[in-house]
Model the fold of this input.
Amino acid sequence: MEISYYPGCTLTGSAQDLDESFRSAAARLDINLKEIPDWTCCGASSAHMVDAYLETALPAHDLMAAQDIGLDVVAPCAACHLRLKAASRRLLEDESLRAEFPFTGGIEVLAGLELFSRKEVLALVKERVVKPLSGLRVVPYYGCLAVRPPEIIEPDDPENPMAMDHLLEALGAEVVSWPYKTDCCGGSLTLTRTDLVLKLSRKLLDMALLVEADAMVTFCPMCQANLDTRQAEISQETGKLYELPIIYLTELMGVALGESGARSWFSKHLVSPERVLQAKGLL
Amino acid sequence: MTDKKIGAVLTVGGGIGGVQTSLDLAESGFKVYLVEEKPCIGGVMAQLDKTFPTNDCSACIFSPKLQTLAQNPNIEILAYSQVEGIEGEAGNFHVKVRQKARYVDPDKCTSCGTCAEKCPTRVPNEYNFGHDIRKAIYKDYAQGIPSVFTIDTEHCRVFQGKKCGVCAKVCPADAIDYEQKDTIFDLDVGAVILTPGYELFDTARISEYGHGRMPNVVTNLEMERILSASGPFEGEIRRPSDGAHPHKIAWIQCVGSRDRRKGMPHCSSVCCMASIKEAVIAKEHDASVEPTIFYMDIRAYGKDFDKYYERAKNQTGVRFIRSMVSRVVEDPLTHNLLITYLDEGDQLITETFDLVVLAVGIKTSESTVKAAGLLSVDLDENNFCLTGDFEPVQTSRPGIFVAGVFQAPKDIPQTVMEASAAAGVATRLLASERDTLTKKKELPPERDVSGEEPRIGVFVCKCGINIASTVQVPEVVERIRELPGVVYAGESLFTCSQDALANIKETIETNRLNRLIVASCTPRTHRPLFQETAREAGLNKYLVEMANIREHCSWVHMKEKDQATDKAVDLIRMAVSRVRQLEQIEDQQLEMVSSALVIGGGVAGMVAALNLADQGFPVHLLERTDTLGGKARSLNHTLKGEEVRPFLDNLIEKVTADERISLHFNSVIDSVEGFIGNFKTKISSDGGEPQEIEHGVAVVATGAEEWKPDIYGYGTDPRIRTHLEMNEAMKADDPAVMKADTTVFIQCVGSRCEERPWCSKVCCNHTVMDSIELKKANPEARIFVLYRDIRTFGLNEPYYEEARRLGVIFARFEPENPPEVTVGDKIVVRVKDLVLGGTMTLEADNLVLAAAIIPLEDNAELARLFKLSTNEDGYFLEAHMKLRPVDFATDGVFLAGLAHYPKPLDETIAQAEAAASHAAQILARGYVEAPGMVSSVDSFLCRGCGRCVDICPFGVPELKETEPGVFVSEINPALCKGCGACAVVCPTGAATIRHFKDDQIGDMIDAAFA
Done:
């Protein structure tokens, strides 16, 4: 399978581990990623808040490039995916914008989870697992942007999504049912309202610990960064030690599919998943 | 319309709506085919535990109707069936119905249940929403009709290609038939009535509440089963996750209702009351339950609903929280449920509950949508059946009618009303074909057994194993054989099965039995069957007695088998003692006058009069004023936008032109004498000489009034108007009203207060209608509606939404802090703002008061004349709030319109058609049947003391002077209800109740203690 790849800024910076593990998982599942040439920032987290034109124009530039390639485009970062998908909608509705960006709607914008949840891909995942994640208790954490706004994202179920659950099951992990799959971690307030972020993140971590999860699995780079980096602060504030690995789904795919370089991704985590994975005999 | 009409009707859907409409049609002389897609009829009502607002047990009030239906020779039940096609036109349709194979022969199956007992395949029981288990051969509920088991081929091992066949092996009746095929019925009918009911919105699409993945989140209907004694937990309140008794239970309202994003913009109408009822009943079952209801508006708009709500809140201890809950969070360890809500003080509170009940919205089922397409019946945008306000039971296709929730979400009484209305309208269409396709049973002449020594036959039933596994039936038979008068004693597997009934008849004839005892189950359900059997063998039905050795013995003494056998013998001995004393009694047939008196010339009265006239019965229509039309004269249009005036003019014209309708204007009733079939009513018209009208039935359609407020400055300024006055101004297109800058509406003016504790039902809808019209006439206008709860029930809800979209501002107030009105240059309305706090001051150009609808003062007088009841508010009281909404307890008198309770025009019309339908049933029969079990007075023993006159609740006994100074009580058997009060109070024993005479009861008691 061939597909256009839009890494976005985050995956070239703080979420290099997501970029690398995504590319690794794709390669092991016979998915040929074609990085969009000359891609630019989608404007996520700021442009759409302040400028209605830029909101569409920035992702439109990338969509036009993807359209030239003629393949559906996958955007692993949840925020990028939302911006690209929203823009693809807007372009089809707004003629004046389309005069500038003649987008035809011939290509789809996919989230990473969507790509790996495709029936044939999921079947391949099951087939190619070499190291099933047996005994690893995980809670799937989708975060806000994987399901909201539902009119644009069109998730399987905005309140109780299951796509990641199914993938984790395919990898052999023990998926633990928990109630906060889509509750906000506070990621977008990380600099402005740290107090709220600590509260929201702690709620998620506490629930994960209550159900005795070994790790929390996510696909969103903002959630991962936020939950991973805030644990030290929360520990300090509460006097209780928080050390829950926050792992990208694609990283676990790497482990289960036999990627030998997986360890290098984990070095970028503040709470390293290595100890947990070693304890389960997975590394 | 066709010339050749057919005197048969097809009803589609076997819930309470279909059952009622079928019974009405059969009573009216039409052949009925009742099609039901499930294996048994009964619908949702059969699943309910209790019903609001009377807390009646649903099954107990519904079962007798189901039994009556099953025994009616003119109703053919086609269960497990679907309509596959229709041709023809009103009056003459040809319908194809497919009945699915049950793989059980209904003629052989005795419903003994041995098959299900032995069936090895256990399946989640969908009738109880999977909270218990049934087998692959099953019957949904014990009283299900038809009383036949059905194989679920999806789970049955035989149909899955596996080795089994156990049911066929164990069936004692040889009823299992794995080769059975679907049956196609080709039916000719004159009309079709659709009563398919509803289904719940799919909760998978409301996953924020977790139904389906959180075990302790259940729907309203699941809660009904949980509360039900016949439900999965036998009436004990348990929660699914661990079977524990929940204490904190939350109900969440409007789950998938009033929610356009979910494609459910309508209000589901019944959930508020259903939830309140469940909360009250839960608390009744277990006093430790703490019920909480989360809601947006409490819509207690029906008769006595608000009182029920207030009692629940103030006496039962149900906690009401006005907050729309956005989601339910499950504690993954305990399966408890966390709800976060905004309290009245704007604080976010998170509370833990043990069980959460979702009031899930109701919608038309997929199969009904499909059937509607097949029948070419139009649906509205939300898939409810399209009807007009003035023809509420008429679908878009002539000859096809609708009743119940398929027409719009509604409760049981309204469904029953519409079901009778649909029957009435169909009868109107097919009146010429009455009694053409129905059959009367041919019965042999009744044997006179008086003077004969008792020759008693006793049939002891094993009821499969229901009785036989506890009571030693052969021993019982041996022990009763020698009792005095018993000439036959025998046993059977199922006494109610076809072959057993045939055996009873034969035994009566060969042994010349003159008394019959069946020792089996409850007479409540089965007595009519055995009475009918005895009658078919020429025996008077009052010579049949039952001994209930199942409910009263085997079921309650499973662990005391020896004593159970003794007790069964005792019960039969008592029955023998009684049956020896029984006498044959004739039910009476009294002649009747076949005309009707309709009281009230408003819409209700005119619709009822026209219906009766169209069915060929002369009608006297009495109107107290000099014009027809009543309150509808001051209505402009309905909420849907249909103009009232043309409809009303047309109706008046028809009524006036109809020669069968005699109009009496400016008329009052002076006196009423007589009873059903033979009323003599004196009326005076235009103050002239009284005139006597003879009539067989009467319809009370006297209407109600708008309250003239004494609050909110009413009467001090012409710019303060009631709804009806506002109508006048809007009709006149008064620019001071239509172009006003600011208009304020105040709701519940004189309603829902201590003096008038009822909701006037129409006012919210009326205000929404007016505010939309004002906003459309002047989009710049500022319109405020001050309300307590907005009650735009059912399909009215989208208009509330439209009003808000147009910019009408709805602000809630608490009854403790009502708005204050000051009249000056502007009308200043001050009200406490519950959203932002503080006081809101509105300077209005016009103030509209949604004044209460109040009953007429002279209802009490009319009630006295016709011996009717009114409720404590002064509205007329129907025979049964749930199932007899147009009948009075007094036979032969019927009720329609606002005299019953405030209601919109479409409901008034439906109720009038229904009342006419019931009235016509009596007129069409041509005679009045009075049961024989009534009081009689032995004039020799009577000393004329008059105590019976004082005690009789129905005013039946009369003291007649037989010779100067000698008074004797006389009972008119047609009026007597057989309650027995007179027999109890009579000091000389002169008054007795036939069939319950002293020796008939006394001997039984003696036998019990012998």
User: Anything to note?
Assistant: The longest helix of chain B spans residues 561-581. The CA atoms of residues 229 and 235 of chain B lie 4 Å apart. Chain B touches chain A at residues 204, 207-208, 210, 213, 327, 329-333 (CB under 8 Å).
